[in-house]
Every structure is written in C-alpha cells, then in structure tokens.
Amino acid sequence: MIKEGTSQRTKPDKIREPQQKRSIEKKKRITEACIRLIGEQGYQKITTADIAKEAGVSTGIVYSYFKNKRDILMAGLGEIVNTVSQPLYDCLEKFESEEDLMELMPGLIDSFAAFHKTFVKSHQELFSLAAVDPEINDYLEGFESRMLSAFTEAYKRRHKELPHLKERFHLVYHMIETYCHESALTPSDEYDYGAMREEVLSCIANLLKPQA
C-alpha cells in the first residue's frame, strides 16, 4: 500500500462534493493536474501543494474536495477509467449485429490507442503503482472485468451464444491492449503497426464470428 508523506494532511470533515459548474471544473482541474504531474515526476515525488500549484488553485481548495494526495490519485484514476470507458459504451449502444460490431471495432481500437499515446508517462507510472498497491490494482482489474462483462452480455442478447464467449472476449481485450501498449508505449522499428492493427481486427472477427 502506498503511504502518504508526512506533509499530507487529512481533513475528512471538510470534504465536499462540488455542485456548481465552476466548482466541478475546478475539482477536475485538480485531478488532471495530479495525473499530469505523476507522469512527469512520479507519484512519490509530488505533494498536494505541487498539485494545487499545477491546477492553479490554493491548497485550501484542494483540501475542500480531497482528503489527501492519495484521494486525488484515486479520483484521477476514476477520470481516466471514465475516459477509456466512454468509447466502449458508445460502441455498445450502436451494436445491433456482428457486422455493426466489426464496423465499430476499428474506431474503438483507435480511441484506445490514442488514449495510450496521450497518457504515455502517466500510464506507465500508474501501472507501476498498481504492482505495489492492491487497491489500485483491484480498481484497474475491476475496469477490465466490467468491460468484458458488458461486451459479453451485449453479444449474448443479439446472437446465439458462442462457446467460451467470456474467454473469447478476454483474448480480444488483451490483443487490443497489447497492440496499444506496443504501438503507443514501446514502439519498435521492427514492426509495422498498421499491419499489426489489421491482424488484430482479423483475429477479432474470427473469434466473434457467429457459428452456423
């Protein structure tokens, strides 16, 4: 578990949830500043004061919305998960047939890849934190589980269920994740990532093709 530094205060009695648009935007600026600084400096090196300065607010404002630095981190992680999730749920809303799914899948892959490219350093730091912090690890694994369940249930409502459907979607998820990681986080001149993307789509089509 990641421990708070001695400079971090905890004031749960003053925590409030913003209601006005301006306050909501201010809270979001704080979480975005946290994720940005984590990518630039690492979680352990930044303080709540650093986050407040980056967000353009006072430390008092930060402590009116969050208990401490870790609380900001978890809220920022939630924002990231929501950002990644939205294209998925947009895809599910439009999914009526296997043909729809395969037409929507390239856009879904591209949105995941774009996200990875935008948060390269933060992404790497967050997964390093997950390796030593069970709560963060559980949060990330929970996202994967919810996403796979959503796709599996959407498919089952529209098609005759395929054998081992959950396992098929597990493979789909990790093929997309591997492609995004390699193309965005650790690109190599050895591979043609455009060709890799097409192979991933071909494999997905074969895995999810309804059986006669």
Topology:
Blueprint: H1 21-41, H2 48-55, H3 59-65, H4 69-94, H5 98-118, H6 120-132, H7 134-158, H8 165-185, H9 193-208
Helix coverage percent: over 70%
Helix/strand structural class: mainly alpha
**Mass-distribution shape:** elongated
Strand content: under 5%
Total DSSP helices: 9
Q: Which residue ranges are poorly predicted, with pLDDT under 50 across at least 5 consecutive positions?
A: 1-10
Number of strands: 0
Biggest pleated sheet: none
> Rounded to an integer, what's the Rg over CA atoms?
20 Å
Mean pLDDT: 83
Distance between the termini: 50 Å
SSE run: HHHHHHHHH
Describe this structure in words.
By secondary structure, the protein is mainly α. The chain is 75% helix and 0% strand.
Which features does this protein show?
212 residues; mainly alpha; 75% helix; 0% strand
Q: Summed up, what is this model?
A:
The chain contains 9 helices and no strands. The chain is an all-alpha fold.
